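Thread title: Can someone regenerate the structure for this chain?

I was given the following input by a collaborator and told the matching structure tokens would be attached. They weren't. Posting the sequence so someone can regenerate them.
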Amino acid sequence: MLKNIELIINIFVIIFSIIGFTKIFIFYYKKNIGLKKVLNKEYKNHHFVSIIIPARNEEKRICKLLNSLKNQSYKNFEIIVVDDNSEDNTRQVVENYKSLILLNNLKYIRLEDEKWHGKSAACHLGASNANGNLLLFIDADLFLSDDALEYLVKYALEDAIISIQPYHYSEKFYEQFSLYCNIIAFLGLDLGNIKKPFKTKSGLFGPCVLIPKKIYQYSQGHLLVKDSILEDMDLGIELSKRNIDLYSIPHKGKFKFRMYEEGFSYLFNGWSKNMVLGAQKSNIFSLLIISSFMTLSLSLPISIIASIVKTSIFPLYLNLIIYFLFSIFLFLAAKKIGSFSFFSCLFFPIFALFYLIIFIRSIIYKIFRIPIDWRGRKVIIR
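Best answer:
Regenerated them for you:
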């Protein structure tokens, strides 16, 4: 009886893991994505875009973004950098860039509100100073290909919101530990469905969000998530409740970012403040996929070791086959999401365990209201 129950659970876990991979492949691998058909919108060059960059202690990253914006093939935009009380030289870097490069469409604003600060406050202030009919909120650690803005604006809708999860570029080995966090962040948004692969109700990818100004104004935008740490998912969920459609489209290699280049501890804290909150907001089906994905990732190596100890040849071969198939599927998914190596995918249990540690830490910090150091502030997970 117990063996039958175990077999059913294992089959269940494998099926839902396959569904998870399938959703990623549908989203990223379709040659003819058919975005025009799905979004039903033709490219219009007259859109004026206000690019709003919330920035806190971004002196080392923001110039790369500004350089990529300067070279855009689509020229009808303004740039608004909102400084969230940076403690480094962010202001000097932005102002020096403007004077040296003569980027006349660049504005610098400093957030002065002492009661409301953080990314949502910076985004809201930037929107209130924007002249464009489209508001593009992008993080300061992004960098864009020359045709990135043209690609995004081409699919702009008057009555819907579009977000993009950028390609996660990495250089150092410790950055590979973001592998599972990226995969699960994607699965949590419930994208890649067969009929509507780009539509979601579960949130937005915060690093790159395109919102029509009229929608932002009448919905109150980031005021809806004034006290949220995970403002991207919360904002998307709140807007979806107001019958506003949410779409996410593939990055196509045009939008990239390098997260947590400051070091491993920064990466550890950054993901810790987001993971448990993201899990709380995912729907049941997404949670089943994520749970199965994690269960298979952690149980496979245990099953292989158990088969070796018991000298059970057939279970050993079967588990090894599943292990290597999982590694291959993981790599095919991961290489679309970021610069994650086959080596990392082959040794996936290490990175799955790291994700589990982050998740448990996030729960503990939430329960006991332990603050996490983040960009010079103490952040409490609520």
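The mean pLDDT is 90.
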